[in-house]
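Quick check before the chapter quiz. The format below is the same one you will see on the exam, so make sure you can read both the input and the output lines.
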Amino acid sequence: MAGLPLAPLAPLAPLALLALLHPIAQIDWTRWTVHPSTVVGIAALAGLYWWAGKRDGGRGMGDELPRDPSLRSGQAIPEQFIPRPASRIPSPGQRVAFFLGLTVLFLSLNGPLHDLSDSFLFSAHMVQHLLLALVVAPLLVGGTPGGMLRPVLHADRRIEAVARALTKPVTCFVLFNLVVAVWHLPPVYGLAMRFHWVHIVQHLMFLATAVLMWWPLLSPLPELPRLAYPGQMLYCFLMVIPMSIVSIYIAMADQVLYPAYASAPRIWGISPLTDQHIGGLIMWVPGGLFFYGVMTVVFFKWAQRQEDGTAAAQVDWRPAPGTAGRGWSG
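Here is the expected output.
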């Protein structure tokens, strides 16, 4: 019996090779992989938060500024800018925010989302990074009372000097965007995919610099102040630009930039290049719209307080006697 003609099948050879390189895989949404390093870190944060909130019955040394605040800030602070004695005990709302942040952190770094981002989809990794930067970080900052941090800040002048330098808006802006840009360079990203300890460092740097990025907007300490509301709006607008540049570089690339995903099993039939484009769009569109949403919130808070100065933007601010602004906490 004559053999089957092979010439008509020749064009299918590249497709067969592609199928071997990118086998179709399925993700098990019911199976949760839990990484001990994340559990240890999250448990340590929760324990430290509980301990700091309970220490000395919730009030102790460092809860108040010195009588003359200019000794620490280098300039006089308006009366409504000086924090009143602050308890280290978090309010119920702060507790909910902080532990919700820890919960989202756990869900981001374990389970199906972690499996997708580590082994299958670059786009899932972008969702993971946005959750760390835009959800977990603001919840942790917003959930931490200033009275809990003040003893550490004033324990040593060197600590205070470093804290002031790191929480300047320009520093926060540069550090966060530099970390995002560098970690998305293909060689650096490839190291994180090959070595687990590098991947852990990547996530720690994202989270740490994201906390700094939110500081000019959510600082619980007037000693390390928030920006005035006009400055906050400009800060949010500018924050969109570097992330857009990085995401456009990823979304508009005509080749796969990250080899780890080029050889990964395929999920839902998404090709490596399409997956990369989706990841870039996730960083570009939702990431940018998020900051425009924050700008909207800032605008309405500014309109409600009816003051442009730095003092009016601080936590627990109260209007000076005789002013038209209304009090606000937060």
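If your answer matched, good. The radius of gyration is 24 Å.
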